[in-house]
Backbone:
């Protein structure tokens, strides 16, 4: 499929050492620089691009099980029709937690599929209603409260709300759907994970540096 143009022209050669490291890391890991980088991050102060990396770091502090957090983010991304977000979730699960793939594949039928228990269904019902209606009914909240603590409920709200800016960023800049337009990008890694991983790498690595605890370097 032909590449759809964005309103703003992608920047192939960014200014600044940190951005050049991010571009290098993205090309090394995924084969090309995704449009969120070349259109948005390249034009903004670096702190705006590192927002996605900060979201990823905050997710590590959640008390919720990793699988539940992954399913909630994937559900919100799917409802928002952010296919590059969905692809990023799939890339991460495939490479990091492949045991979660069966539920990810069955997410559209979570309310009837036996892979999901009542607790996960309550969380996904809440996330679905909050995403679609921007509010939740008392019954949906009561069902959630039977399975989750007050902190965990706040964490679910965080997962839903922090996933929302990604599709708006893409649509506001008229970015193409990278699932279709970037077929040459290795392993389908086309989503928010790019900003997170590359921002983390840029903070600790430079081209040619050996692998460190941060996961950067050759690999």
Residues:
């Amino acid at each position: 499929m032909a590449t759809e143009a964005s309103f703003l022209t992608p920047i192939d050669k960014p200014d600044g050492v940190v951005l050049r490291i991010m571009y290098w890391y993205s090309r090394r890991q995924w084969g090309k620089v995704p449009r969120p980088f070349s259109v948005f991050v390249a034009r903004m102060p670096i702190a705006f691009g590192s927002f996605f990396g900060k979201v990823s770091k905050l997710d590590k502090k959640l008390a919720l099980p990793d699988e539940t957090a992954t399913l909630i983010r994937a559900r919100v991304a799917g409802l928002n029709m952010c296919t590059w977000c969905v692809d990023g979730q799939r890339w991460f699960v495939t490479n990091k937690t492949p045991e979660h793939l069966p539920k990810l594949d069955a997410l559209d039928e979570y309310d009837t599929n036996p892979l999901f228990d009542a607790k996960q269904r309550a969380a996904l019902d809440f996330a679905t209603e909050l995403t679609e209606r921007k509010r939740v009914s008392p019954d949906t909240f009561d069902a959630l409260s039977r399975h989750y603590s007050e902190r965990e409920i706040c964490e679910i709200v965080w997962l839903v709300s922090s996933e929302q800016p990604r599709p708006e960023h893409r649509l506001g800049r008229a970015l193409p759907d990278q699932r279709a337009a970037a077929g040459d990008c290795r392993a389908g890694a086309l989503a928010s994970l790019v900003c997170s991983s590359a921002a983390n790498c840029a903070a600790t690595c430079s081209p040619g540096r050996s692998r460190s605890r941060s996961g950067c370097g050759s690999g």
